[in-house]
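HUMAN: Mind making up another protein with tokenized structure?

ASSISTANT:
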Amino acid sequence: MNITGISEQIRKAFQTVKHPGKDRLIREGSGGTTEAEDIVQAFGDTSWQQVSGETLRYENAAMSFFSEAAFVYYLPAYMLFKLEHFSEADVVPDNLVSQLTMPAATDFIEAMGYVQEMPPELSGILMGAADNIDEHIRWFRDKTTLLSNEQSATVLSFLHYLNNNYADNFADGQIEKAINRYWFQFS
């Protein structure tokens, strides 16, 4: 599929998603920070179709602060900006693919079976990481389960397009990791 086809697929899949409201843009625990206030100011009541590329580039970390509903709502804007303005997108592509990748920490869950064999100082570090793992996996699950099957399949198409055309611009096979850890199931 080409850029035009994927862009149309994105617009169609997300056309009926409702704005979460200015007061529901930021996820719990992220409010009150300068970054969160800047994001609310920048996005406010702006529709995903109207948010500027300059805002997306400047607020490239917004996806980390968005509530689950705001993440789903603004996801098409970030995907379209990435597709249609790759060279101008700066760090937006890396941040977007990172947000679409089930946390790498999931790789460490298997290591939990070896905790008793580790020195106490290493097992303590691993156990601390496990607490953080659960939070990141939960947030990934909470935001991605809000997507319909059509929207999830659209994300997969987007990731395939990036992988086929821009894989060299991403470190460590990041796009393939995103696909293989979660999105593959929507093919």
User: Anything to note?
Assistant: Residues 3-186 form one domain. The two ends are 14 Å apart (CA to CA). The mean pLDDT is 84.
